[in-house]
Amino acid sequence: MSPSIAALVLAYRYPDGVEALSKFFAAADIDMFVHVDAKISDEPFREAAKKSRGTVIFIADRVPVFWRGFTMVQATIALLKAARLRGSYDRYVIISDDSLPLLDPAALRNKLELDCDYIEVRPVNDALKIRYERFLMLDSPATQVRWIPVVDREVTEEMFHRCERLMALRRRGKKPCSVHYHGSQWMALTAPSVDAILESWETDPWLRESFEFSEVPDEAYFHTILSEQEIPEWRPLMHADWSVPSPPKVFKTLSELSTIDTGGAFFVRKIDFERSDLNTWVDMMLGDAKN
Fold first, then answer.
1. Within a 13 Å sphere around the CA of 239, how many CA atoms are in the beta-carbon half?
2. What CA–CA distance (Å, rounded) separates 291 from 287?
3. What's the structural domain count of the chain?
4. 144 close to 66: Cβ distance less than 8 angstroms
5. With left for phi above 0 and alpha for psi between -120 and 50, is residue 284 left, alpha or beta?
6. Domain residues for 89?
7. 212 in a domain, yes or no?
8. Residue 96 and residue 80: Cα distance in Å, rounded?
């Protein structure tokens, strides 16, 4: 029996990306769940998704996502929970709205027939351990990494509450990790792996808070939880080109995408849908699949 699959899309910039992905997942008979960064309106993304005939669910539990912060983890957890509430899926594919598929729908489903996680996992080195060991708070306008006008860096009451929790954690110390792994946040997980992540989220607040006040936790929190049971085999889901001078490479043309060495990955990012002809990529792929 073919596995039931949910695609979980973290959207922050490209309605055209959501449109392309919704067409692709509809053709693959995959339900698509979308979290739109709460800092922006989700209406353009909803309008874009209407152009497909598939099942697209925009989740109501939205958080403002800050680069390198814990809110990326929170948004991913919100997507996992929303998919779990809707049905018992066998696979959960986590990608972003600046991604495109590299396989046609049938080929992707064939790959996901395997009862395994597609995830990149490696032990953290000393430099990456510092991201966890230090006490950081990157999830607010006032403390975020990206540049915004100073006048927008207002200190809010919610930020003070978060500071209180941070100070309490400093007094207690961060949870020692018996295993500590990291890798890409873009992955395809089996139902048991999702169960393990959600169980840890609910039952281990010390680990959750320890990662909350760290840097780039979305590239380590899930990987560490899964590696506590058994270290997953290296199976990449997402291709990104880190060989360019200012990585990762941003793909803007069909010719660029057609010539890459994907290393066996199923999807590719980053796609610039605003300045490219790549919004036709899925239409071309689906046309070829029908021929």
1. 19
2. 7
3. 1
4. yes
5. alpha
6. 5-120+185-198+233-290
7. no
8. 14
